[in-house]
Amino acid sequence: MIQRETAEPVVQYLRALTYDGVLTSEEVWELANWLNQQPDKIVESWPAKPLIAALRAAYADKKLTEAELEELAQTIAAIEELWAETFPQTADEETADDFLAGAAMIEEGKPEAPSIPITAEIRAEGGSDTFAVDLQHHTCTCPEWMENRAAFREGDYRRCCAHLARAFHSLAQEQESFRRDPLFVAFIEEQARRHEGADLDIVWRVVVVNGTRVLYGAGPTSEWASVFSPDEDGHYRRYGFHRRKKRWCYGDRPKQIAWRMESIFSQSQPQILAGRAGEAALGVG
Length: 285
Prior knowledge:
Blueprint lengths: L3 H15 L3 E3 H12 L3 H4 L4 H11 L7 H21 L4 H11 L3 E5 L9 E5 L6 E5 L4 E2 L2 H6 L13 H13 L7 H13 L8 E7 L2 E7 L5 E7 L5 E7 L4 E2 L9 H8 L13 E3 L4
Antiparallel strand pairs: 1-11, 2-6, 3-4, 4-5, 6-7, 7-8, 8-9, 9-10
Helix pairs in contact: 4-5, 8-9
């Protein structure tokens, strides 16, 4: 029998890891490290136990092949399906959410990254090179920024390369005033967790639902859309929605706005996500 107490922490971690339907080798390594830090009651229970077994088999030869990465992705997809079947959202909860979401919705448009008159030197992740970042004009001297991000207008979230994201994240931790924009803070914290810059193909927009500001984004080549919305404690977190299958990642729906967001995402259908080297689809396409 599946125990929610020991399963939910693992499911929550997997949910944050796989909201975009893609699993990378770096994320698998982070997952293994996280599981190694969990207490016995979690690692000896579902779903940690089969995950650990799969990870040990994958790393038996001290390297992770694309086939092994795909197999791990399928294991995680199976865990998601079993979790959703075992702990489905009740009809009363869905009805309440949809009723509340039927209230006013105001489209704000594209969000703006804050303009802060600060420049800094940021060291490359895992390297010795340093790059100059400008938090006022959202520029960086790294080759990736100059090649891929310079064309976006100032304020566009996509100007945030990994170095700008790290600089903003450090500032958010140090200055309370910076946290007055919880949407951007949540967005930056997510990039810092992934050790990456903003996805280039995701266009971010802000909508107000029942007085709550919500950040959402989707790209033309992915069937997954992302939503940053406050949880029951008022803290913004990321949710994933599969636009073709019309379901939320692990059945985890943002309270009181799920119906409205689903109506937005159903207006257009994305193309099928193409495979990328070193990544594996999570069996949800």
